[in-house]
Design brief:
With about 260 residues, this protein is α/β, with parallel strands linked by helices. The protein is built from seven helices and twelve strands. The protein has helices at about 20-40, 70-75, 80-95, 155-160, 165-170, 190-200, 220-230, and strands at about 5-10, 15, 50, 95-105, 115-120, 125-130, 175, 180-185, 205-210, 235, 245, 250-255. Strands 1-3-4-5-6 form a five-stranded mixed beta sheet. Strands 7-8-9-10 form a four-stranded mixed beta sheet, covered by helices on one side. The longest helix is centred in the N-terminal third of the chain and has 20 residues, at about 20-40. It starts with 5 loop residues before the first strand and ends with a strand.
């Protein structure tokens, strides 16, 4: 029996990185937002045990890298790395799990290839979970240069799941607050990824981000409610806040999602 706890879904303002180090600055800004969100969450009368961030919260949407390995390497980061280190400090400080995503990530098993990766940090500041986006938007494989596990299926299953496809594609973090899985953005448009996580034991499914027009036309809410109902799971669905486009000393804010 798990005692009642609060989950905080954070929807931060989105700022595209210009250099890898910019992601650390974004995390520090988000951490301040987390402090306020957790304070409010505690008003529910139970401790906050899980904080979730949406896809693109840390790096923004890194675009215009089709086939440009040099530019991809410029943006690519590691897990663990400086961004996750900053989040880990906050997880320890608040005694909570933090789930988030990084958009272009290096992987030692697949050199010179980059992935969209969700991760979970435990209250001790350790990374206990990584899941690689397996159902990509049309532009991700080309414009963003990310690789999909399906592109290297046999090698992926062997290296990431010891031959077990479910563990390689649908890993789940087993924690004292429940089993947690993360479906990244477009993956939640289809039933298969949340179902795969549920079949592998997920009791809490995080579904981070979906861009317009799928929010205002109701698809986002409909999909998330359906995933919860059909999989008998809690679904936590943080989306992005407004997007800031910085040019010189000016800043223009574009409302792209609630």
């Amino acid at each position: 029996m798990v005692d009642p706890f609060v989950v905080v879904a954070v929807s931060p303002r989105t700022i595209n990185v210009k250099n890898p180090g910019d992601g650390v600055a974004n995390v520090k800004r988000i951490n301040e937002f987390i402090d306020t969100a957790v304070m409010v969450g505690r008003w529910e009368g139970s401790p906050v045990k899980l904080v979730v961030l949406p896809e693109m919260a840390i790096q923004g949407m890194i675009a215009n890298t089709p086939g440009n390995r040099e530019k991809e390497r410029h943006f690519a980061v590691t897990i663990p790395g400086p961004e996750t280190d900053e989040l880990a400090k906050k997880a320890v400080e608040l005694n909570t799990y933090i789930a988030a995503e990084l958009y272009m990530v290096k992987d030692e098993d697949f050199p010179d290839r980059h992935f969209n990766v969700a991760f979970i940090i435990d209250p001790q500041g350790e990374i206990i979970y990584k899941r690689y986006k397996a159902t990509s938007d049309a532009y991700e494989g080309g414009m963003l240069g990310n690789m999909n596990p399906h592109d290297v299926w046999d090698e992926w299953i062997e290296k990431k799941g010891n031959g077990n496809a479910m563990d390689a594609i649908f890993p789940v973090a087993k924690t004292e607050i429940g089993n947690i899985g993360y479906a990244i953005c477009h993956e939640g448009v289809y039933p298969e990824v949340p179902r795969g996580l549920a079949m592998n034991g997920a009791e809490i499914i995080i579904r981070g981000t979906l861009i317009e027009p799928a929010v205002q036309n109701g698809m986002w809410e409909l999909q998330n409610r359906a995933h919860a109902m059909f999989n008998s799971a809690y679904v936590v669905a943080p989306n992005l806040g407004r997007k800031s486009v910085r040019t010189g000393a000016c800043r223009t804010c574009l409302a792209v999602s609630p």
